[in-house]
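Private note to self, pasted from the team thread so I don't lose it. Backbone tokens:
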């Protein structure tokens, strides 16, 4: 690996960066709301099983391809495919993932901007600035444009500093901060009336629901999307890993952390929902369906925080600061995908490439803001329901079918010379060839239907 590309300086740095990519708004908020909408503890159990049976093997495929290629996603995939059709397919999958990551960041920055404005609102309220507080929590072009731009600038500033001084340095700071805030909030919420009811709904499964088709497909999709698969991100991160590192254990650590934080987030959100319900906030309809699933974080929780009195301002600040940190750890990886390709393909320096790509994404975000009703939901559906499953499916096919088994083994053995004698190697090559494409294909077909 050339010094120009850079690499993670430590195992801990990579784990924090990869986990930060996986742990975002979708994980901290998406997983709990999916849980509340799909049988509570039954969904949690299905998710935990599928995360290790599907997401981990697929993650390993992207990491192995990335480290072997030591390059951006397009070049890495081309190195394991034959000229002609193989190279054309590699470009389609690699560049498609890069575009997908950029589009995800374009709407993600808008939502992250809302989180940032919600973080500042308690400060304005405490300072007696009622007008400013109202503006911070009201939907408006000025607020959305300002905070979207601010979030993108913050992401660009981190990425422009490179792998070790940018991605790794800030992931190592932000992820522990996220965990501290998360556990502090859990400790507070669990002392409130109604929390134990929520905890029971979250931890005691109704086994009769576990094999429901909709529940399984939802859990499968959540497990897949939560690890940033199908966006070229993990191929890029894999290319920054030292050849001396054991990829099998690294991938396992990232999966464990991702699942752990999603589970812990549920320990906060689900009890908090029932606490809010105990205080008169309507969470579920008469039929038991979750109300306002997409915007619940901006409706139910502020009402809960307001009912807490003065301490609610502090809790509100801590929660939305947590969400903003989660958003930033994911946005870093999304921006890195197109930046790394631009730097290596066109020979631009990192600073120039980062600000150029950041500017393009900002323009896309502003276009979405100006045409919110038409574009916001469309871009989310296009990328998360169609783009990611299809691209993730193709990456598994590349690792399982385009790359010969010997080359695959040799790459993994560089960090663990005894790999071929492990249970992992006896199962994974077959799994990535047949099981993962079939399961991911199921998610994709379901998204179309």
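Design output:
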């Amino acid at each position: 690996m050339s010094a120009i590309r850079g690499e993670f300086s430590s195992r801990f740095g990579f784990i924090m960066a990869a986990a930060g990519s996986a742990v975002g708004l979708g994980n901290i908020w998406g997983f709990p709301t999916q849980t509340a909408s799909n049988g509570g503890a039954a969904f949690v159990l299905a998710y935990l099983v599928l995360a290790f049976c599907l997401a981990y093997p697929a993650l390993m495929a992207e990491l192995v391809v990335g480290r072997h290629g030591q390059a951006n996603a397009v070049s890495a995939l081309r190195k394991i495919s034959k000229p002609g059709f193989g190279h054309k397919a590699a470009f389609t999958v690699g560049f498609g993932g890069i575009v997908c990551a950029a589009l995800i960041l374009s709407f993600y920055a808008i939502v992250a901007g809302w989180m940032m404005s919600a973080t500042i609102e308690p400060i304005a309220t405490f300072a007696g600035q009622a007008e400013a507080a109202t503006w911070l929590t009201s939907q408006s072009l000025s607020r959305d444009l300002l905070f979207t731009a601010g979030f993108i600038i913050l992401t660009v500033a981190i990425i422009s500093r490179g792998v070790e001084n940018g991605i790794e340095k800030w992931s190592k700071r932000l992820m522990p901060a996220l965990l501290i805030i998360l556990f502090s909030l859990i400790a507070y919420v669990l002392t409130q009336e109604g929390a134990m009811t929520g905890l029971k709904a979250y931890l005691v499964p109704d086994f009769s629901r576990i094999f429901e088709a909709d529940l399984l497909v939802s859990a499968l999709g959540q497990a897949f999307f939560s690890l940033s698969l199908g966006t070229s991100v993990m191929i890029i991160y894999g290319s920054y890993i030292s050849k001396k590192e054991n990829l099998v254990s690294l991938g396992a650590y990232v999966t464990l952390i991702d699942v752990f934080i999603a589970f812990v987030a549920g320990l906060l959100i689900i009890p908090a929902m029932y606490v809010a319900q105990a205080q008169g906030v309507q969470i579920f309809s008469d039929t038991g369906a979750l109300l306002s699933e997409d915007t619940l974080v901006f409706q139910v929780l502020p009402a809960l925080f307001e009912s807490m009195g003065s301490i609610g301002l502090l809790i509100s600040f801590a929660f939305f600061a947590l969400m903003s940190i989660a958003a930033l750890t994911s946005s870093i990886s999304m921006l890195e995908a197109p930046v790394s390709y631009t730097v290596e393909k066109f020979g631009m320096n990192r600073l120039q490439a980062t600000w150029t790509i950041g500017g393009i994404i900002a323009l896309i975000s502003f276009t979405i803001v100006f045409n919110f009703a038409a574009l916001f939901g469309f871009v989310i559906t296009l990328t998360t329901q169609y783009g990611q499953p299809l691209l993730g499916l193709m990456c598994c096919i590349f690792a399982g079918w385009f790359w010969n088994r010997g080359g695959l083994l040799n790459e993994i053995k560089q960090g663990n010379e005894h790999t071929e004698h492990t249970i992992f190697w006896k199962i994974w090559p077959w799994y990535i060839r047949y099981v993962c494409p079939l399961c991911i294909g199921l998610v994709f077909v379901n998204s179309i239907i």
